[in-house]
Amino acid sequence: MGFIPREQTAAIRERGFAPVAPALVAEVLSPDDRPGETLSKVGDWLEAGTRLVWVIDPLKELARVYRRDGSESWVSAGGAFDGEDVVPGFSCQLGEILKR
Predict the structure, then answer these.
(1) Contact in structure between 18 and 49 (CB atoms under 8 Å)
(2) Which phi and psi angles does 17 have, rounded to 5°?
(3) Residue 7 pLDDT more than 70?
(4) Is the dihedral of CA 65, 1, 94, 8 positive or negative?
(5) Rounded to 10 degrees, what is the CA torsion of 54, 57, 60, 66?
(6) 5 vs 87, more confident
(7) Pair 29, 98: CB distance under 8 Å
(8) Of 54, 96, 66, 99, which is closest to residue 79 (Cα–Cα)?
(9) How far, in Å, CA of 20 to CA of 71, rounded?
(10) 100 pLDDT more than 70
(11) Average pLDDT of span 43-63
């Protein structure tokens, strides 16, 4: 899942790939995802201009937050995601995402 700010949506074409990177990407891991492949995708998104990447691991009930500036943090099941400066004011409990 990705988030593109409204001011960038005009660049999205009706067909083909958008020439803009999402500002925020959320990746929910499946049991078959390999850590190396996931880190490679995170690197690709950040290199393309994505500012915030959330990688959610439902089995471990943890998430890792990667930022374009190179900083990282963890969110536990009792914690919350913050939209930071990408989606100001947005907050979501990891537990809400993990509900089955």
Answers:
(1) no
(2) -85, 145
(3) no
(4) positive
(5) -30
(6) 87
(7) no
(8) 96
(9) 22
(10) no
(11) 94
